Amino acid sequence: MVEEISVDYSAKLKETVEKVPGTIIGSLVSMDGIAVATYTEEKEIDTSIIEAELASIFGILKKSVEDMKAGKINNFVLTTEKYIFVTRAISEEFYVALVLKSDAYSLGLARLEAKRLANEFKKSLV
Fold first, then answer.
1. Burial letters for 48-72: b for 16+ Cβ neighbours within 10 Å, e otherwise?
2. CA pair distance 68, 46, nearest whole angstrom
3. pLDDT class of 5 with cuts at 50, 70, 90
4. Which fold has domain 9-125?
5. Residue 126's pLDDT band (boundaries 50, 70, 90)?
6. In this predicted structure, what is the pLDDT of residue 1?
């Protein structure tokens, strides 16, 4: 008998967003760009666009990494004028994303928390 694991993804994302200074969005997303759960403190930001675009980048990077014979993508960080996007692959089907304000000083903590969330969510998404 397989034990079913229940996780409140939204609550875990909220907890992480509140824990990591400067973080404004936390998302659990399928690789097709559709969010399973999202928490944001910035209601005027359309998170669905961010989630879809990051999934698209994952797809491009996956192909490039395969061409380089470099293994699988674990994570990537994208910095822009306004934001820092921290992503972590959970599996071939899902990823976690944290979005920080560009002046946030907690990139290291965000990367650790994204890894922790990915490991925690992986147990329930298998």
1. eebbeebbeebeeeeeeeeeeeeee
2. 34
3. low
4. Beta-Lactamase (3.30.450)
5. low
6. 43
